[in-house]
Amino acid sequence: MKTAITRRQSESMALVGLFAALIAVMGLIPKIDLPIGVPITLQTLGVMMAGCLLGPKRGLQAVLLFLVAVAAGLPLLAGGRGGLGVFMSPTAGYLVGFAAAAFATGLLMAMLPKATPLRAAWSALIASVVGGVLVLHSFGIAGLVLVAKLSLAQAFWGDLMFVPGDLIKCVLCALVVHTVAKALPDWRFGGRDA
Predict the structure, then answer these.
(1) What radius of gyration do the chain's Cα atoms show?
(2) Which of 63, 94, 140, 150 has the smallest set of CB atoms within 10 Å of its CB?
């Protein structure tokens, strides 16, 4: 009994670390700078995948581990940025939103049907749109208003630049979930936190 619990805890810690590293590696892909001070990066895809594949609790833990490493000064954000200063920049809302997005994506993924790989993919698409677009962008807009001192209208319209790319990331996340569902039919998407 104790061995099974230890094995589950070890597996859980390994997955959390793996997804934190995956989000960091996605920061190596060159960013696209935008005039509002927030770049387009691939790291939001990692946040969506953490929620869909790990569930709300471990997805949140993976993102928090990543954010702690960034706050400690590791240059893990796209463009080699890191340190506490990034939490005072226009990207602050999006960074804080990473955690909320992973949790919301995982929570929704746990509630949606996943009986077949196709259903799992559709569930991942819906969860990613809600968590990775609606929740994340709400935090991003709030950050632009509070930190960048934009009006709500300016922040909203500036944020719209990210939506098409993030919708593509939602589709990519759904494709990854579909592939994992076919390869690992026993994987409990969004529900392995127990």
Answers:
(1) 16
(2) 150
